[in-house]
Write a structure and sequence with these properties.
TIM Barrel, alpha/beta, 18 helices, elongated, 3 domains
Length: 508
């Protein structure tokens, strides 16, 4: 039986495939001394995006792994087939890395087998020395139909050297897994590997059952780090197999570092992921609600019952007392969009003092508002503020702060489904509503300005920071969209957002 560790590849969903050198070094020191047969560091990809280096593995990174792992270990990479349009795309991608990899894995929806089989068969003929693996996704939706199972496996064997069953929803129970093996043995159907997600805390149990039933390969990750609820834990499987760890120091260092990350990023099983799994709701969508859209688990669970999240429309409409045409006429000065960066606390006072009193400030979160309150305590400014509160942000609002009443919050943008009666605190304020669900506030700000025919995004205090990777990635996607609809992006402070630098000290 082989262990395939995919900590960095699957864990990349939490870090945007960006890991610091110290952690990578700890990882390599630990795995090189363990009976882990295959290491999967990430993806190879030529996509033009903002994902980190472990989504875009190259010769330099793969070379480091090749040198550090032991001679009996192999390196596999994954290719996202959604990025592949034709054979030329995949041929170029593999050619660049072929000398440093031992295998390629493809995560495939069984419905798409016919679409991708010809391309992979052709690839296999050209590069025959490496192993080709199919990760057949959404297993909980098709394993009960044995005729369909047989058909899927037979089709996959045309190109795949290894076929793994992937419980994408984390919905298969141990009893179902045991019964499945009993049934396929009668039909003389077999597959090679397993990859379980941990939505219902079944991943390790299902992995052990599969090993005991003769499966040749099991996917695991250290501390279970992986998309959504995560995966079966490598260290727990090693303990079950009674593996004698040669250097407990190296393993301890790795686990300590990952557990610190786990506290911050919060992967692992939960009620929300379990609820999603048992109702056939994608854990990718649930992860998007919890991580990217910043919803607590109860609210995220409630939302999937009520809304079609595919229709996440940003249709900003004013309440009955507000005429947006009148608002257009009032905008005669610059509009600045403030992020929640900590630099606002230090540089905000002089920045705001330099603004014209007629300049409008858009605050994109509760954190931004807190920063503005802090600034107001030092310098009383008169600029009007538009406050954007999406998703759970309204719950974080400190209504008791004595300075909140003194700020000139002129307008508020809320998401209709997150309205809170506490907002009546702002009795004299005008409210705009969006039909979106916990959408990125910068995206809402941009669309709001587009409605006002103000086509500039003047950004300040969007410096980003460690531990904010998912939010930063979401913001970058929002920026890409806003550029497409004609918005010009400027930044008046240091930022991670692609933009034209502007000086706040020039009178332009």
């Amino acid at each position: 039986m082989e262990i395939l560790d995919c900590t960095l590849r699957d864990g990349g969903y939490y870090t945007n495939w960006d890991f610091d050198f110290k952690l990578v070094n700890e990882y390599l020191n630990a795995v090189s001394e363990l009976p882990i047969k295959i290491i999967e560091p990430g993806y190879i990809s030529n996509a033009d995006d903002n994902k980190g280096p472990f989504y875009h593995l190259n010769k330099k990174i793969l070379g480091i792994f090749k040198k550090k792992i032991n001679k009996n270990q192999k390196i596999f990479v994954m290719i996202n087939l959604k990025e592949i349009k034709n054979f030329k795309d995949i041929d170029k991608l593999v050619s660049q890395n072929i000398n440093l990899i031992d295998g390629i894995r493809f995560a495939i929806d069984p419905k798409d087998l016919k679409k991708y089989l010809p391309i992979i068969i052709r690839l296999k003929k050209k590069f025959s020395k490496i192993e080709y693996c199919f990760n057949l996704m959404y297993a909980s939706t098709w394993i009960k139909n044995l005729e369909n199972v047989k058909k899927i496996i037979n089709e996959s064997r045309k190109a795949a050297d290894n076929i793994s069953l992937i419980d994408s929803y984390g919905a298969i129970t141990p009893l179902e897994m045991k019964n499945f093996f009993t049934m396929i043995k009668k039909l003389r159907i077999n597959f090679d590997g397993v990859h379980f997600h941990n939505n219902c805390n079944f991943a390790l149990a299902n992995t052990i059952i599969s090993i005991n039933e003769g499966v040749k390969r099991a996917d695991t990750t250290f501390t279970g780090m992986g998309r959504g609820s995560g995966n079966a834990e490598t260290e727990y499987l090693l303990a079950y197999l009674k593996v004698n760890v040669q250097n407990t120091f190296n393993l301890s260092n790795l686990l300590d570092s990952l557990n610190k990350m786990k506290k911050k990023l919060e992967w692992g099983p939960s009620y929300a992921y379990a609820y999603a799994a048992m109702r056939g709701f994608s854990q990718a969508k649930m992860m998007n609600l919890i991580q990217n859209r910043r919803l607590d688990q109860g609210l995220a669970t409630n939302l999937i019952k009520q809304f079609d999240l595919k229709k996440n429309e940003i249709d900003i409409t004013p309440n009955s007392n507000l005429d947006i045409k009148q608002l257009k006429k009032k905008i005669k000065s610059k509009i600045f969009i403030f992020g929640g960066g900590q630099t606002c606390l230090d540089k905000g006072p002089i920045f705001i003092k330099n603004l014209k009193k007629t300049d409008l400030i858009i605050a994109t979160s509760n954190r931004t508002l807190e920063n503005l309150i802090n600034v107001y305590e030092n310098i009383h400014f008169e600029n009007e503020i538009v406050l954007i509160l999406t998703g759970n942000e309204i719950k974080k609002l400190n209504f008791k702060n004595k300075f909140i009443r003194k700020l000139r919050i002129k307008y508020i943008i809320l998401e209709r489904n997150f309205f809170d009666k506490k907002i009546s605190f702002f009795k004299d304020k005008k409210i705009f509503y969006s039909n979106s669900v916990a959408e990125n506030p910068l995206l809402i700000a941009g669309i709001f300005l587009k409605k006002l025919r103000y086509l500039k995004l003047n950004l300040a205090f969007f410096e980003g920071g460690q531990g904010l990777e998912s939010g930063m990635y979401e913001t970058l996607n929002s920026i890409d969209y806003l550029k497409k609809i004609g918005m010009k992006i400027f930044s008046y402070t240091k930022t991670y957002i692609p933009s034209i630098a502007k000086s706040p000290w020039l009178n332009d």
